[in-house]
Design goal:
Structural class: alpha/beta
Radius of gyration: 21 Å
Number of domains: 2
InterPro entries: RNaseH-like_sf, RNaseH_sf
Helix content: 25-40%
Distance between the termini: 44 Å
Largest sheet: 7 strands, mixed
Number of strands: 12
Oligomer: single chain
GO molecular function: nucleic acid binding
Number of helices: 8
């Protein structure tokens, strides 16, 4: 599958730019920052230009792909191109083309957004993990309810966040109590996305013996634990059932979420029934 993520940044009275990321079967092929042609008058014109440029990248990189998906975070711009999909698809014989809306905080869309602002993007080499819906997994809820399994998740700290940085608090808890909530991660905005950078900082800490000793003293158990994707970390999830975890892949753990109510309260409320 060929995927193109595109975004734009409208700068009134100045040059505006398009950011694009191209992937085939999950592997990056291309990233670029390109000036929006002409003199756009608003953000929508820029987003339409971004989608037009994305089509030009499809022409460049398509190689008999059976499925081609172009992503953008403007619902209005995407809707306009969805109305043209049959016409555009004729250029790519044998391929199914679609235009899809995607939230800006998603991994590759966040990269396209950063590129449109002329930020350099460095893609994480960290592998992804499969995401499991705990609402459909009684074994997960039973494990959390009866075995004291640790659940890790992040919360934003509004009083410490500014327009230049976002602060996250790492929460580790069991069914019974919170084990740790005093590790704060301030992350500078811009670049490949604050959630991704926060996850990388935490993974680095989990390789530090002093941090591991500190967590152990609080009764934290990393092995066979769970990382809960919440609204605050939904950007770590990809476009399929994969996500980046805050825990290193060397630590046995599972990534869980609920598609509707992503709160930690929902998880522990559901687990309560299995005690």
């Amino acid at each position: 599958m060929l995927e193109v993520y595109c975004d734009s940044s409208y700068n009134e009275g100045e040059d505006s730019y398009i950011g694009c990321v191209v992937l085939r079967d999950g592997m990056q092929l291309h990233q670029s920052t390109t000036k929006v042609p002409g003199h756009p008058q608003n953000n929508l014109e820029c987003e339409l230009s971004a989608l037009n440029f994305a089509i030009s990248l499809v022409r460049t990189f398509s190689a008999g792909d059976t499925e081609i998906v172009v992503y953008n975070d403007s619902t209005e711009a995407v809707k306009a191109f969805q109305g043209r999909v049959k016409q555009v698809e004729k250029e790519f014989s044998g391929s199914r083309l679609s235009f899809e809306y995607i939230p800006r905080e998603k991994m590759n869309q966040a990269a396209a957004d950063s590129l449109s602002k002329k930020f350099p993007v460095f893609f994480s080499s960290t592998s992804t993990s499969e995401v499991e819906s705990f609402s459909r997994r009684e074994d997960v809820l039973l494990d959390i309810a009866r075995n004291g399994s640790n659940v890790f998740y992040l919360e934003k700290v509004p009083e410490m966040s500014t327009n230049k940085k976002t602060c996250y608090r790492l929460i580790v808890r069991t069914m019974e109590k919170i084990l740790s909530d005093d590790m704060i991660y301030p992350v500078k905005k811009g670049g490949p996305g604050t959630q991704i950078k926060a996850a990388e900082q935490i993974r680095k800490d989990f390789s530090n013996p002093e941090v591991l000793s500190f967590l152990k003293s609080k009764g934290v158990r990393l092995e066979n634990s769970y990382f809960l994707l919440t609204d605050e970390t939904w950007g770590l999830r990809g476009t399929d059932s994969q996500a980046y975890s805050i825990l290193p892949s060397s630590i046995p753990h599972r990534v869980i979420c609920d598609e509707v109510d992503r709160s930690a309260q929902n998880l522990f409320r559901r687990a309560e029934r299995f005690r």
